[in-house]
Structure formats: C-alpha cells, structure tokens
Structure prediction request, 145 residues.
Amino acid sequence: MTRDIQLVTQLKLQSGDTVVVPKTPLKLVQHHALYLGHDDFGNHYMCENVIGNGVKLTRVQDFFHSVSEVTRIEKFHGNDFTRKLVVQKALLKLGQPYHLINYNCESFCNDIRYARPKSKQVEKAFVFTSFLGLILLITGIGSSK
Prediction:
C-alpha cells in the first residue's frame, strides 16, 4: 500500500474534506487544504493556497511530508455530485494568488466548500489587534507626554 493510500485511509478522507494542520509550534496559526481525491493512476491530491505560490495541486504524500500532526479533519457533508463540484471549483482556482487577509488557505477552502471566502483566523486576529489597540489607547501606553 502506498503512503498516499495509507494516509487517505487512516484519515478517512473523501473529496471535499478539509485537512487542518498546525503551521506554528503553539498551533496559533493553522494551514487548511482540501483533499480532492485520486486520478486514474492512483495519485491522491490536495489543493491548497500557499504563500508565494497561490492555489496549487499537491500530492498527498508531499503535503504530509513535513506534517507531524493533524489538528482536525473538517468533513464535507455532500453527496457524490456535490463532491465532484467541489473538485471542479478547486481546479478552476488553480493559480489564483494568495492574500493573507482576503484569500488565504482557510478562506480558499471556505470559498470552495461554501462559496464564502472567510477566515476565522483573520477575524480573530483582527479582533485581538483591535482589542490590544483599544487597551493601549485607554492606558496611554506608547503615547508621549
């Protein structure tokens, strides 16, 4: 059994599932990628949006090569037809540029799966920085007197 098939079987991946893996040691930042399925030659593929590359296809074994753990699998709840549509939509996005705020890996996956390019990570970061800025403003830290 190839490493691709072992990983797909172990994680019970189906087309349209999102694989979430940590990008930082404390898991503050997570990377999201879509499992697309396999081709006629048995090669299994992920589709991901990567800084510097944009949306690209990646073989499953290459995706997991440097992954030490999986945070979670977000199962796609659809039928065979909607799974095929997800794969087609992802392939149409190949080459689309990465943008940290407007179109990152998480927003790409949500765009493909739900037609909503949103990133909870970006929303949380915005809330946190806004809160921090408010605290600094209230306490006067950083202001010159």
Summary: The mean pLDDT is 87. The beta strands are 18-22, 30-38, 44-50, 54-59, 72-74. The domain at 3-119 is CATH 3.90.1720.10 (endopeptidase fold (from Nostoc punctiforme)). The chain has five helices and five strands.
